[in-house]
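Reopening this ticket.

The earlier resolution said the output was attached, but the attachment link was broken on my side. Pasting everything inline this time so it's all in one place.
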Amino acid sequence: MQPHKYMRDKKPTLFEQAQRAEQHGNRQTRDLWELFRGHRQRVTAEILALAPGGYDARGGRLCLLGAGNANDLDLEALTARFDEVHLVDIDPGALSRATGRQSPAVRAKLWSHAPVDLSGLFSQLGRRTQLPPVDAMVTAGMTEVIRQLPSEVDVVASCCVLSQMAWALERLASANGTRDPMLEQALLRIHLGAILRLLRPTGAALLVSDLTSSLFYPPLAELPPDEDLRALTQRLASQRIAYSVCNPELVRQILRRDPGLSETCMPPTLGEPWMWTGPNALTYLVYPFVLRRKG
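Inline output:
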């Protein structure tokens, strides 16, 4: 039976377009496990350092936002430490591949949540011809994200997903495919707010962000081994040589200015940045921010 003409001609929603774009990217990188080795080791170590009770303890709940193919996550090491590991992504196929390559013992501790629009924006933008007030979009987006995810989590990690969501917004939802600072800041407010509300009061959140790449800052590909990456991160951030939504200065500003976030979150702590060379031979400068709730 041929599909009805209406079904063939129906334009994909913004959410569907974003999902297809991410599915395409995940298929391209699904077999690059070894390429991600150094980056995976650092991300996993940063997560384990935040586990409740220290390195020798066991138990707790971990939520990984933007897990995708999990090439940047050592799920065996993480499930050995945590009782539950929740994988969240817009692409169900990527999570299926990630869990499918694990042992039965590891899979027993994995929970998949997909498809989830972690931006909280695509469904809202696709339904309206006129944007609602920004605060209303942020509240609605945060509520929708949280509704689909576990609560009272010990550690939440955002795995370089902010830049991916910002690129999707730029390509699909902004006028003429250009940056929309209002949408970017709404995205960041939703993401930070959701992360903090998923945490139990004593929990910790890890925001792993790719600040920039050698495509935009070519010297990254030729830095000396003893380069001070913390100083470089701060310099590039202040000079705006960064993916805007991942700029730590913007993150700090949003945490200060958003009333809900400023009342909830302690000042973020910048960890030690690192570099890694990923797909298409691009070198990335990555930094970790640790967030904790007040009180």
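Reporter confirms the inline version is readable. The mean pLDDT is 92. The longest strand covers residues 199-213.
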